[in-house]
Design goal:
This protein has a single domain, classed as Rossmann fold (3-Layer(aba) Sandwich), CATH 3.40.50. About 55% of the residues lie in helices and about 10% in strands. It is built from nine helices and five strands. Strands 2-3-1-4-5 form a five-stranded parallel β-sheet, sandwiched between helices. Helix 3 crosses helix 4, helix 5 packs parallel to helix 6 and helix 7 crosses helix 8. The structure holds adenosine monophosphate (AMP). The site of adenosine monophosphate (AMP) has 18 residues, from helix 3 and helix 4.
Length: about 220
């Protein structure tokens, strides 16, 4: 994990807008992508989608990208060290000094712990975890539809099933981690309904946690 310390903590108190590190949590197909776009526009913070970062690494053909691809193409999670390394490097960039929106990260308890440590070293913490809830049958329906429309290589019926199973098996533990480590950090939001409706629910939850990135 990178150890150099750029603007992340130092400028954290410098500007009026509250610093917010938001985790957008939800199964594949829960609507994280759509809601992320709206949130970053509304909050003015950068979007850190590990799926996008890994797809970019894969497309670049780098060694790291090839390793990531071997996991992604099978619908399995990439190794924690690899993903956290990419995220922490990104967090050290100046535009993340006022917070960011994590999309698809952390996906394991180990990733959540490493992120906590990285932020705590800088006097910061995750402000809120937004848990977008959607029933399994609806998730399957949405993902099959997306695979048809977008032709994403990692959205075949087999990988869709695998990704949903991986989410159930591994990622749900991340919620328990956040619930136990800091009571009140997790906000569950109903993900059924139109995008505007879901967005309003999410913003309501975000508003309840504004200015909560700094534990001091
Ligand atoms: P996504 O676009 O978020 O659904 O991610 C697509 C794929 O990238 C996943 O199925 C994983 O193989 C990989 N991936 C994305 N984020 C992570 C993460 N935080 N940890 C491990 N693997 C990830």
């Amino acid at each position: 994990m990178p150890s150099s310390d750029s603007g992340v903590a130092s400028s954290a108190q410098a500007i009026d807008r509250p610093v917010m590190y938001i985790v957008l949590f939800g199964a594949p197909g829960a609507g994280k992508g759509t809601q992320s776009q709206r949130l970053i526009k509304s909050l003015g913070i950068p979007h850190l989608s590990t799926g996008e970062m890994l797809r970019a690494a894969k497309a670049s053909g780098s060694e790291l990208g090839q390793v990531a691809a071997s996991y992604m193409d099978e619908g399995r999670l990439a190794p924690d060290e690899l993903v956290v390394g990419i995220v922490c490097e990104r967090l050290l960039e100046a535009d993340c000094a006022r917070g960011c929106l994590f999309d698809g990260f952390p996906r394991t308890v180990e990733q959540a712990r490493l992120l906590d440590r990285f932020l705590a070293d800088r006097g910061l913490r995750v402000s809120v975890v937004i848990d977008i809830r959607v029933q399994m049958a609806e998730l399957q329906r949405r993902m099959l539809e997306r695979s048809r429309v977008e032709r994403r290589v990692d959205d075949t019926p087999e990988t869709i099933q695998r990704r949903l199973q991986v989410f159930e098996a591994q990622t749900a533990a991340v919620l328990s981690y956040y619930e136990s480590r800091d009571h009140g950090t997790v906000e569950s939001v109903d993900g059924l309904g139109g995008p505007d409706e879901v967005f309003d629910r999410i913003m309501g939850a975000v508003d309840r946690h504004r200015g909560r990135a700094c534990p001091c």
